[in-house]
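User: Predict the structure for this protein chain, please.
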Amino acid sequence: MRSPTLAELKRALARHRPKNLPVQSLMKQAAVAAILREPSPSAPELLFIRRATHESDPWSGHMAFPGGRVDPQDPSPLAAARRETLEEVGLELPAEAQVGELSRVLTAPRLPIPMVIHPYVFTVEDVPPFRTDPEEVAEALWVPLGFLAAPENRGTMKRTIKGVPLTFPCYDYQGRVIWGLTLRMVDELLGLVTNSEVHS
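Assistant: Here is the predicted structure, written as structure tokens:
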């Protein structure tokens, strides 16, 4: 698959109807921001963070999108995604920067409390240097969509969960492994353009 352009992604997102899981009353909620930029024509990039290492964090050290839990004072999950992005990497996302939404994702059942994650898609142009919060973010980096769209860059990783060895799909970008929930969101984003091309 070739790398989609930012214009193609915007058109696909405008037509997309995400699958929104119902949020049960006891479920915790989180929201993330999938942030795109196009520093050169037809070469969009997607922002990732590598989470700081904390023993109590089930996603400690993982590659992810900026975001976090929806707090009681947040008026909406979208507001939480924007707030968390500002806190984690110092990037302000105005309302007009949002270009779409991906399907809600449910965390793995092995976690003690189920959580539903709301992914929102944004585009930005002039990005100031990141101001990462070291308590939450080890680094922030842009990954070319062309890398993620190339099938030859897709691999697998092994991980033992509750004593059971399992194999998961992943991307290894310069030593940073993108997998799990974040990979599912990436796949949906890229799949929007693939499906659009197939049905056009």
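The chain is about 25% helix and 35% strand.
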